[in-house]
TrEMBL record:
GO molecular function per UniProt: cytokinin dehydrogenase activity; FAD binding
Known EC number: 1.5.99.12
Species of the source: Trapa natans
Organism lineage string: Eukaryota, Viridiplantae, Streptophyta, Embryophyta, Tracheophyta
Any one Gene Ontology BP term: cytokinin metabolic process
Coiled-coil parts of chain: none
Protein name: cytokinin dehydrogenase
Amino acid sequence: MIAYLERFVPDNDTDPIPQEDGGDRRHDSHSPVLPDSLGLHGSSVDSGKAAAVFASRDFGGMASVQPLALICPTGPEDIARTVRAASASTHLTVAARGNGHSINGQAMAHMGLVIDMRCLDPDLFELAPGGPHGPPSVVVSGGALWEDVLTRCLEHGLSPRSFTDYLGLTVGGTLSNAGVSGQAFRYGPQTSNVTELEVITGKGTVSLCSEDENSDLFFGALGGLGQFGIITKARILLQPAPDMVRWIRLVYTDFSEFTRDAEWLITRPDGNSFSYVEGFVFVNSDDPANGWPTVPLRPDHPFEQERLPPTAGSVLYCLELALNYRRHDLPSAVNSVVEGLTGGLRFVEGLEFHANVDYSEFLLRVKRVEQHAKATGIWEAPHPWLNLFVSKSSIADFDRTVFKGILREGIGGPMLVYPMLRNRWDSRTSVVLPDSGEIFYIVALLRFSQPYPDGPPAEMQVAQNREIVHACNKKGFDYKLYLPHYKCQEDWKRHFGDKWAKFVDRKNRFDPMAVLAPGHKIFSRSLGLGSKIIAVEEDQCGLL
Ligand SMILES: Cc1cc2nc3c(=O)[nH]c(=O)nc-3n(C[C@H](O)[C@H](O)[C@H](O)COP(=O)(O)OP(=O)(O)OC[C@H]3O[C@@H](n4cnc5c(N)ncnc54)[C@H](O)[C@@H]3O)c2cc1C
């Protein structure tokens, strides 16, 4: 069996990548031999060209490696069989692919087996009502999309507590990173809102884990970049769903006032603040992709730039807030809470935007962006995104160096910046945060340009990302990459800092042959039992 599989696997990484247009998920060539070789029970295995194209692409659109096959699993056992077969070989790797929204090939496997997690248990939805011992929760598949989880929860008047801005991402994909949005200041990231996982380790063992059972696997898998196991099920904490959201944007000219107000809001006691706090930077111009037009919430709500003081600089800031409420709440009561919270804030008078929207419309707001971007070809263009966590101690310098300096003309898409609280993150997970302070900021540079030549070349945008990271290092900013992507051991070690030894130890215990998640290029596939895990060495370190 293994000999059969290994016939396909080259000794080096230089095989050509199939060049083909499209990328639709069409499993067009089912190998009758490969499923038998893997011993799968009903899962489909596709080693055709369309599958190769599908699995060799991601949202970033910059990395591409050819897999051996794409597997559509019918159940966790078939994933376990696949992992066991791979680990018994000398070369094969396995990548769980969620919805492929990575930027740098993290869900790919060169001549390895890619598991399409979207196939797994799409109907799994085991609701547990809340009670005196805790809030309600639901068990869903690791391959479920958050938007589907939300829709099904809303049918029961419930909702997850912590989200990402965009919900076309899988549960396993975001839990392997962190999963953050404007609710994280209160509930923490999505990794803080899950109490139990089913994980298939790199040895092919199916394990249930939680804070009390197999806790090292549980905390390792959360934020673990898929290095220790494939998340097949997750129990997610829920809360009663509100009906409506008051959605608000407030414009600032001064970064220190923007951060002071944002920090004041996130440190208010629970129940006495907004439900969601985010923010973004925009350019002080009429540029439709980077400037004033990106701020209003409705087309009939113009941005009156004459309200800006003459002292306003080349970039401006916008606090984005949301207050959840029930349909039967009196508008005057909602207004009074909003006024109570915003009354003392220092935004530019008159540059405030309000809208009342359905809760689900608010949570699915980026879907509209997706539809528009798909219609204009921007969704399929390369997306050289960069995400960082920057400590409060470095954020003012970061603003001067990056927002007002390197990015003063914008990036052709949102530049998010908003604060979060360390105490809402569990330090036992694999996620790494900046070294110091209770408050840190997420900075998300979400480039959404037309493909070259209508937009800038992706290489230029990647070079700008490198310049930003270089500046952070040179100036000694306290920061970490979020959704990290490095290519050599020294950078990964620096990234994990004092968590590196634990990370390597967990790898040795849960995936000793380094079969899983090869796309991160942290560990290279071990060649035989007992051989040492070796991190990938490259001549040049830095971002992928
Ligand atoms: C439009 C867009 C908006 C985004 N918005 C946000 C946001 O608001 N907040 C935020 O935090 N992030 C955001 N992200 C980033 C996103 O959370 C990550 O890219 C996430 O990994 C994507 O999930 P996915 O299901 O597409 O995973 P994939 O890209 O398919 O996989 C990501 C990594 O996780 C591993 N993996 C996937 N599934 C599993 C599993 N079941 N078990 C173990 N490992 C697994 C993969 O092997 C890979 O290493 C956004 C990305 C995009 C493209």
